[in-house]
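User: I'm writing a tutorial on reading structure tokens. Could you give me a worked example: one chain, its sequence, then its tokens, then a sentence or two explaining what the tokens reveal?
Assistant: Sure. Here is the example chain.
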Amino acid sequence: MASVSRHYTRHVAASVFFTAALPAVAAVLAGKSIPLAIVAGILAVTAIVRLVRLIRYPISQTVMMSRAIAMGDTMLHIPETDDPLLGQASKDMNRILASYRRDQNELETRKNYYERILRIMTHELRNTVTPIVSLTDFMVQNPELQSEEDRLESIGIINSQAHNVCNFLESYRQLTVLSQPTLASIPAAQIFGQLQTLLSSEPGYDRISFETAGNVILQADSSLLSLALINIIRNAVQATDSIQDAYVRVLASAPGGKACITVTNNGPEIPDNQIEQIFLPFYSTRKNSSGSGIGLALSRQIMQLHGGTLTCTSHYPYTVFTLQFP
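And here are its predicted structure tokens:
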């Protein structure tokens, strides 16, 4: 099969030539030698069958690709060739298959992501609403057992829980209303200067240092990138609250010509099984956190809107968040 694809044009040309020439040869030989005419006729039929098979070859490759897509087969690879007729077609088919594989992987990733978000949302909402249901059931079923002071206390609890639900839903809404970034060429030093001003009055600011390795230019939306970095830096500062000689280092560089920003802290190591979990909305490694739990999820979404990535590695004594630009 590989030989057919590699020399497809040559095989087709030879089959066309014999298919066209052998009937005429058979007609000439018929007047001279019947056996030779029969042999020529057989060769002509063979050439026709061969030509039909060659014509069906690219069709069969296309059918194979279609079936692979229909059945979810992500492993199929069409043999590539330098043949002038099949070469570009095989490259295009493999490009389609590669795109299909990427789409399938992305869909599966998103499916798992949203399933986990749904579980978290269900858990959070149930925890918030259950006390309201229990309290109101008691109030409805036992009105005579409650004094005015008890009722006011109950109403205060219900009000507080209702606000918790609203705050929770508002946090989630922030993840869904991000606009497309307006990209511009911005020096990393300029972004860092803005961040220093914004963070200068916050607790733990003295632990933060900003550095640039040369004149790093970022293709970014200044407002969205600042929001992403503030979330990551605040997270790093909180992670080092109980650490002696704690620090948070923000570095802009461009290894290999591609800009990136790293935020390094010497806080507690994040276990491997939690590295991806921390980017889920409402997930936190701190039990008594007062934050919304969407900071890192929001930051990753901002980087994805920029066409880049946000990843985390954590090996004692360093945890590093990397914002990689395309």
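What the tokens reveal: The chain has a mean pLDDT of 80. Residues 162 and 306 are 36 Å apart (CA to CA).
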